[in-house]
Amino acid sequence: MNAEDFWLEYADIRGELHSGSLESTWPLRFEAAGQVRAFPAFRGQRNFPGWYWAATCAELVGYESWVELSHLMRLDSDPEVCGLASQPFRLSWRHGSRGRRIKHTPDYFVRHRDGTAVVLDVRPDERVAPEDAAKFAVTAEACARVGWGYQRVGVLDPVFAANLRWLSGYRHPRVRREAVAADLRAVFARSKGLLAGVRMVGDPIAVLPVLFHLLWCRELAVDLEGEVLSAAASVCVAPAVLREVDGSGGTSAAAVAG
Predict the structure, then answer these.
(1) What is the pLDDT along the chain (258 residues), one digit of tens a residue?
(2) Distance separating the N- and C-terminal Cα atoms of the chain
């Protein structure tokens, strides 16, 4: 595949369509692009498209199925992700001697805080037909040419998905109360049971929403894949948060907790 074979069509934030070669367009901020393709809706439709408010970018991001929604929540809760867009561009390339062009629209474009990018396709393993696998392989090749990562992901682990679904209800910044958050970080500097630690801070009705927000933001850590969240789940301050506190020259959370 020659580099000039790859062509991109994309929509800006006003919905206006543009196109160009991959080599000329890849520096664009596709995490802020509009959807290049609308989601179809028809009678008897088996998938469930919709819009999800992403705390990462404070924007609505589209999804075409509950499988996509689970991965969208996973990305939104990842502190390393700073931007994401649905249906960010349509990639095409020549196929065969007669120059017929094959087209593929990836599901998501993800930007990380270090500037790196990942293009994501969401498709359950049992639904990857041979022609789909071929498109995914060529898309991965195109991404590699410009330094983007590429992933094709399937169904998210059900326990992980259930925990993310619960915590996503507390993703909005309005849930955060800084004084309570500071007390929670101090209490959970040493690992302890979720509800036991919450009761050390105050009334669970007032404190639990802040705890769930910190778990969503990964400022507090808990095993989200091993079991569904419960009162006995072991919670502690996330290692990255401890490193930030210790590295700032301030008192570590462990020291605050005694």
Answers:
(1) 555 589 999 998 888 999 999 999 999 999 999 999 888 777 777 778 899 999 999 999 999 999 999 999 999 999 999 999 999 999 999 876 566 789 999 999 999 999 999 999 999 999 999 999 999 999 999 999 999 999 999 999 999 999 999 999 999 999 999 999 999 999 999 999 999 999 999 999 999 999 999 999 999 999 999 999 999 999 999 987 766 655 554 434 333 333
(2) 61
> Could you give the C-alpha distances from 206 to 55, 131, 170, in angstroms and in order?
21, 52, 13
Find out whether 214 and 220 touch, Cβ atoms under 8 Å: yes
Residue 56, Cβ density class (10 Å: 0-12 exposed, 13-18 middle, ≥19 buried): buried
The SS3 assignment for 84 reads strand
Question: Which candidate, 103, 110, 98, 87, places its Cα nearest to that of 7?
Answer: 103
Tokens standing for 213? 């927000």
Partners of 150 in the β-ladder: 119
CB 177 within 8 A of CB 134: no
**How far, CA to CA in Å, does 98 sit from each of 20, 32, 152, 201?**
21, 35, 29, 70
Contact 31, 83 (CB under 8 A): yes
The Cβ of residue 33 has, within 10 Å, a number of other Cβ atoms equal to 19
Cα→Cα distances 54→105, 195, 244, Å: 21, 28, 25
pTM of the predicted protein model: 0.87
Between CA 221 and CA 191 the distance in angstroms is 9
